[in-house]
Amino acid sequence: MSRIAYVNGRYLRHASAGVSIDDRAFVFGDGVYEVCEVRDGVPTDAPRHLARLARSLAALRIEAPLGEAALARVMGEVIARNRVRDGLVYLQVSRGAARRDHAFPAAARPGLVVTAKSLDPSANEARALGGVKVVTRPDERWAHPHVKTLQLLPNVLAKQSAREAGAYEAWFVDGQGFITDGASTNAWIVTAQGRLVTRPTDPAILAGVTRATLIDVAARLGFALEQRAFAPDEAYAAREAFLSSATTVVLPVIEIDGRPIGEGRPGPVARELRRRFHDIATRGFAPVDVRAAGD
Q: C-alpha distances in angstroms, 289 versus 34, 66, 107, 123, 294?
């Protein structure tokens, strides 16, 4: 079956879909994006993802290409046309196509691309059972990592550096020596006292939607949680560590910078959070309290 993409109002074969070479996403990285997990044919935490998309668009002063209800319909249609049962749906909004000029164009219409693809859930489950390795890298991203912009070159370089070091992910370290978040994930540890720790949603990190839902899961399970900065040395000494994102949910970290974490295998807190995540995560587009999405 040919994959189908939604591009600026049309459903097109993925192989032949395209956008203008004057699109500001291509020229300047002038746009934002969202990724939702798809589980059993339904997007996970869609209201929170759409709320974050709205915040990212507002931060860059890009007009929303569609209303939230219309965008939800497009997402559902793209998932259905691609027959995705388990996988992801990707949304990208640009400021639009215009003559190349750094200043905002006066009359450009925002561009919208929505795609979906299937992923093998068993591969992610196998990775979670074994755990993954992480390396730390200096945080050299642009000054607004809390906006889910398309400007991802520093993230790309950090992820490549991790792969070349035999690791799955890179966790950024800021100028004060604290871990911010990962190239495409949020960072968590479990202290020797059993307390969950993750950095607060200050402007140094992306406010992960999965991160926000995990905070709800942790509260329901009665885990003690601290939202504060932590340094690599504390992470090295942690009982457990894990990362979170829409496409990985919870992925235990068994090694950081070549040092085993805890017993060097996935720990019980990460396993329980992963197991219970979908009990709480929003399915589809049912209303949800999005006030906590930035927590």
A: 19, 21, 34, 32, 11
Alpha helices in 91-193 (DSSP H): 121-130, 153-164
The residues spanned by each domain of the chain are: 4-119, 124-283
Interior CA angle at 285 toward 281 and 289, to 5°? 60
- Examine the residue annotation and report whether 148 is marked as an active-site residue of this protein: yes
Q: Are 149 and 60 in contact (CB under 8 A)?
A: yes
pLDDT (mean) for 159-182 = 95
d(CA 124, CA 168): 12
For residue 263, what are the contacts with CB-CB under 8 A and spacing of at least 6? none
Bridge partner list, 190: 196, 240
Q: Please give the CATH architecture assigned to the domain spanning 124-283.
A: Alpha-Beta Barrel (3.20)
Catalytically annotated residue among 117, 133, 148, 159:
148
Give the model confidence (pLDDT) of 62-103 as tens digits. 999 999 999 999 999 999 999 999 999 999 999 999 999 888
Q: How far apart are CA 171 and CA 162, in angstroms?
A: 9
Helix (H) or strand (E) holding 27: helix 24-28
Number of H helices and E strands in the chain, helices first, is 8, 15
Distances (CA, A) of 21 to 11, 16, 96, 127: 19, 15, 10, 38
| Class of domain 4-119 (CATH, top level) | alpha beta
pTM (two decimals): 0.83
Amino acid at 39: R
